[in-house]
Amino acid sequence: MSAGRTVQSIVDAGKDALQSQIADTRQLIYSSPATLAYNSPGAEGYGVKRAGLAIPDSIMLIVSPGCCGRNTSALSERPAYRNRFFYLTMDETDLITGRHLTKIPEAVKEVVDFLPTQPSVVMICITCVDALLGTDMERVCRKAEEAVGIPVRPCYMYALTREGRRPPMVHVRQSLYSLLEKRQRQVDRVNLLGYFGGVDRSSEIFDLLKAVGVHQIRQIAECQNMADFQEMAAANFNLVLNPEALPAAEDLHKRLGIPLIQMQRLYQIDKIAAQYRAFGQVLGVTFETDALRQNAEAAVDRLVQRTAGWSFAVGEVADANPFELALALLSAGCEVQAVYGTTAAEYWPWLEKLAALKPELEIYDNADPQMVHYHPDESGPVIAIGEDAAYYYSGTQKAAVVPWRGKTQPFGFDGVVKLSQAVCGAVDRAEQKGSTR
Amino acid sequence: MKGLRKVLTPFAPDQSGAVSVLYALGGAVIIVDAGGCTGNICGFDEPRFETQAAAVFSAGLRDMDAILGRDQLLVDKAVEIAESLHPKFVALVGTPVPAVIGTDLKSLCRLIEKKSGVPAFAVATNGFKLYDAGCEQAFWTLLKKFCTDRSQTSRKGIGLLGATPFDCDLDALDAFLEAHPTCTAYGWPQNEGLDTFADGASAERNVVVAPDGLKAAKWLNQHFDVPYKLYDPMAAQFAESVPDVSGRRILAVHQQVAVDSARQVWLDRGAASVTGATWFMSLKELAQPGDLKLKEEDDFERAAAEGGYDIIAADPTLKPLAKRFAGQWIDWPHFAISGKRLNPHE
Fold first, then answer.
1. Of the candidates B190, B200, B162, B174, which has an alpha carbon nearest to the alpha carbon of residue B26?
2. Which band of pLDDT confidence, cut at 50, 70 and 90, is reported for residue A166?
3. Do residues B146 and B194 make contact, with C-beta atoms less than 8 angstroms apart?
């Protein structure tokens, strides 16, 4: 059985059939080394545990069987997370009696007393077990809050609800932003919501906003302390860059009256320009993007020339949507041979366009069990974008690897320029390496 | 407070132990979870994951599976894997989710085996116990399933039981096996390891290198008269490498067979006393007066501070708990505690 499907066969099957098999739990999920960072949030990337500690000086008490907290040591060794994770380990009796819940306020107090300085917030992280027990963690947190006199918030690491209405990465954002307290809104302030690592400050979005009178652009990643974080409550509007932050932004709209505008990260230059135009119309301003667009187009031209004779493999463990990026590359005139990503109904427009441009393009789902024996096509030189694609191609004869996964997130025209530079640099290195063999 | 960890992270759980035994046997290992446990096991507790791909899957359970008890869906998924990948077996490994909703993993395995024709068995771990409980159950289950008769008339070879990456560094184990060609480790090497269980009845004798191998060794002894002894040669090698132990009081912290094997070496070399301590299984066979069973952080903190030891040999992760210990600290890594390789290459 083949691991991949052509994009044409996916489109032929129709949008209704597109619902991911994984979302529908019709097949097992292969735990691929290619997606290690994706599978194991404790190891890399932002999972619930790391995201839950986005507020400066916060700590987390993980209340769970030992298995759920095991890999956290990979995180807690990093200087930024030292002395921030604590554990209340459940045993089988706790499971039956639920007695662990009564211990939480006391445990929170013991941890807070143990620390040399008082934390800003205590996040209580609970897992699938309490999801199944139906624990009212909001109530437990209120009790704990009374015990220590600082905010205590729940944080649900419920993998069971991963494809549900409020998956864990959505809920953790709601929990964090629920800490913002009402303030007078300031017309020159905006929050960027969506990325825990923050948007790269080299992105043009900062200068564009400043040019229209926005002087303070805040991101949770850049807050130095709780007071800094609370300043986010004074924003004139929230700019939501990742759909996972949308429910949190909607909460802030209802609770604090902060309106929201949604944008998305794209690599198709014409779509980026169109998105800025639409954004400007909403604000009643015009963003001057012509020079930025020309600069991005020039970078892509250089990319197309430099990668002639190479083929792209685009993965999902990258700072890009693999289908949108593949479409951007194909539209620019690059050759794309494979995409590694889980198809979903919301990607339908991109899939249709990919099918029109290159119907035989192979789409691989990293989590498909058939990927156990997968080896990529080695017929020519390949540029592997994303950590998953890099895994598949790193041992091949001629591959240029571009992990494209940073702490801060690329955005807008700047993202296109930076990616083009990264690809050209990787091709240079691969060719130099090849010539010295 | 009981169960509260302020310094240490949780130790390797039973489900990781079970997968560790099953990992290299050429079967399809299905972790019956929502995905997080599989990420923990593959991304942290299985050092072979990045270098030796294996058919390890998550059942991908979702809330509706738990609410509606859609066991048939899991059976169908497992049968599909058995028919498409042709694994040597299908193993279902339990986690907290099936433990809470009361999934009968053994019955599901009977259905999977009947439908697919591929041997199927369950290791009913639950994520609440420690790695050695999962290893013990997996070793024993494999033998019961696959070691059905004595394939050879004459006995030959020495079997190492209990050798997993949690207790034995992979490179050290490979080096030991290379230096001792008569020895075979159950479950070793990659993709051929299942034969070692099938041939278990023909072993001349077994050496149990960790407490989790003892139940399997006793079973082989009862059913096929294979003698066994408890001894960890790699721990003994480690003990030999520790200088200047003569006349000194030592606290040795590891799994109990390793502790006992090191203790013998140190006492032979003139150590004044060796107190064994373990966070894991305690066997009556190896217990010595004064040995410690550790459970909470305070237990170790107190022992280190008040035990009067000259040397503590333990995983370096425990060191922050020994702030009041003034003697010599010897790093004796234990993957089940720290999740770090004994001889890291990096």
1. B190
2. confident
3. yes
| H-helix or E-strand spanning residue A72 | helix A72-76
d(CA A364, CA A339): 6
> Which residue from A31, A106, A159 is facing B42, i.e. has the nearest CB?
A31
Assign 3-state DSSP to chain A and report helix, strand, coil percentages, each to 5. Answer: 50, 15, 35
Peptide bond into B189 cis (omega under 30): yes
CB count within 10 Å of CB A68 equals 30
Strand partners, A238: A191, A260
Please identify which residue in the block is written with the tokens 């006391």: A106
Collect all residues of chain A within an 8 Å Cβ-Cβ radius of residue B12.
Answer: 70
Confirm or reject contact between A28 and chain B (CB < 8 A): yes
Q: Does A392 touch chain B (CB under 8 A)?
A: no
Mutate to test the interface with A, among B1, B5, B132 (most CBs of A within 10 A): B5
Per-domain boundaries in chain A: 4-30+304-435, 43-177, 189-283
For residue B259, give the nearest of B243, B228, B238 by alpha carbon: B238
Which two three-digit tokens encode residue B129? 């116990």
pTM for the model stands at 0.93
A1 in reach of chain B (CB within 8 A) = yes
Helix (H) or strand (E) holding A103: helix A100-114
Higher pLDDT among residues A20 and B79, named by residue: B79
Q: Which superfamily does CATH assign the domain made up of A43-177 to? A: Nitrogenase molybdenum iron protein domain (3.40.50.1980)
Choosing among A26, A60, A70, which should be mutated to test the B contact, i.e. which has the most B CBs within 10 A? A70
Query: A33: how many CB neighbours lie within 10 A of its CB?
Result: 18
List per-residue pLDDT tens for chain B, 346 residues long. Answer: 999 999 999 999 999 999 999 999 999 999 999 888 998 898 889 988 888 889 999 998 888 888 888 899 999 999 999 999 999 999 999 999 999 999 999 999 999 999 999 999 999 999 999 999 999 999 999 999 999 887 665 677 899 999 999 999 888 888 999 999 999 899 887 667 898 998 888 899 999 999 999 999 999 999 999 999 999 999 999 999 999 999 999 999 999 999 999 999 999 999 999 999 999 999 999 999 999 999 999 999 999 999 999 999 999 999 999 999 999 999 999 999 998 765 433 3
> Topology of domain A189-283, per CATH?
Rossmann fold (3.40.50)
Cα gap B105→B7, rounded to integer Å: 35
pLDDT digits (tens, 9 = 90+) for A274-292: 999 999 999 999 999 999 9
Asked if the interface predicted TM-score (ipTM) of this complex is over 0.95, the answer is no
3-state SS, one letter per residue, for B38-103: HHHHHHHHCCCCCCCCCCEEECCCCHHHHHHCCHHHHHHHHHHHHHHHCCCCEEEECCHHHHHHCC
CA A74 to chain centroid: 19
Domains, in order of start, for chain B: 14-146 (3.40.50.1980), 158-230 (3.40.50.1980), 235-338 (3.40.50.1980)
- Whether domain A4-30+304-435 has CATH 3.40.1350: no
